[in-house]
Each structure stands twice: as structure tokens, then as C-alpha cells.
Amino acid sequence: TLVKETAAPPVVCFSGCSGDRLPWIDPPTRVYRRDVVAVTESELGSMTLPGDVCSVDSAAPKRLVDGSWTSANGNSHLQTILTRTGDIDGDGFDDGLVALTCEFGASSTTNAVVAMIGPDRKVVEVGFGADLGPARGVGAWVDDIAIAARKVEVRYSDSVEGEPNATRSFDVIESLKLASGRFKRDKVQLVGPAQAAERLVAAINDGD
What we know:
The protein is mainly beta. Helix content is 9%, strand content 42%. It contains two helices and 13 strands. A five-stranded antiparallel beta sheet has the order 5-6-7-8-9, with no helix packed on it. A four-stranded antiparallel beta sheet has the order 10-11-12-13, with no helix packed on it. The longest helix is centred in the last third of the chain and has 14 residues, at 194-207. The protein starts with a strand and ends with a helix.
């Protein structure tokens, strides 16, 4: 709900006038939102996801029911596994963060992370692991998510290219910040075998 609040300016009067302000001087108007409230856990379990999240089934939006969604043919499934709340956009109110499993048939599973932002409840995918080149495996698995200092943190385990998807060679803690409606990488911290870490760092540097 948009609320307009009008404040009359000081009286403008010239010599001999009655004290009324001049008719062509309009009072200033401030517009603010009265309905800005924090995102709740229940909202996160019933959010509508953009159609391209996980690229499953179709490009149509997918509404979660009690934290899950299943395609009409039953072959694709999305399930909430982690939820967090905290201020992401800096308006002083909690936003929401959700990690999902994305299942394609019986054998292929991956993860996605999305955020619900602001009073308009805009849902934005958090593209963790993007642009990491050949070191980024398709088997990334989200272990934890967090909101801290207006940034989103995603901790996930992953494999190096050429390894089986079930292999978890190293852990990544990736920090991302919302800018112009999109999440951009702020920092990457690696935890794992030196060889895997070196290959991942090389891939990141090659992309810069």
C-alpha cells in the first residue's frame, strides 16, 4: 500500500495579502510504504520460483507447496532443504534464503539457492559456483547457507572435472552480494585437497 503524506509549507505572503499561501505553490508530498514487513518462514515454503531454477520440467513458474514441487508427470521434483532469514537488501527488514534439491528422474540430483527479497517478495536465484570453469563439477551439493553483513554465504562440496559426481573433493564457501537485482560473487574460500584447490583457483583466475 502506497501512502501519501502531505505537509504544508510555510505561509507565503506579500505585503497586503490575506495570509493565504499562493495557489500555484503546491505542498511537498512524501510517498512511503506502510506494508514493509519481514519475510517469514511460512512464505519461504510457499514461494513461486522462476521457471529456470534448476532447469527442470519447463520454463513455467513453479509454486512450492509445503516446501516442495513435483512436475505433472512426476519425473521432476524440487524440495526445500534449508531456510534462513536476514537482511540482504539493506532495508532493515528480513529477507529469505532457501536451498533446494532438484531431482531429474531417479538418478540426477543437484542443488539451487534462491532468495526472496524486499516488500515485493521478488525471488532471485543465487548463482553460486558460476564461471568457475572446468573445475566446477555438476555434482555440487549445498551443505549450508547463511545471511551475514548483507551478504549471502553458500557452503557447498564439489568435485573436479573428470571425477564421479558423487565424489566430494573439496568444500567451497562462497560469499555473494545483491547488486542491481542480481547476486554477484564477493569472495571464495576453498577447503580441501591442495590439488583440487589449485585447479579451482586456476579456473577462477583464468575467468577474470
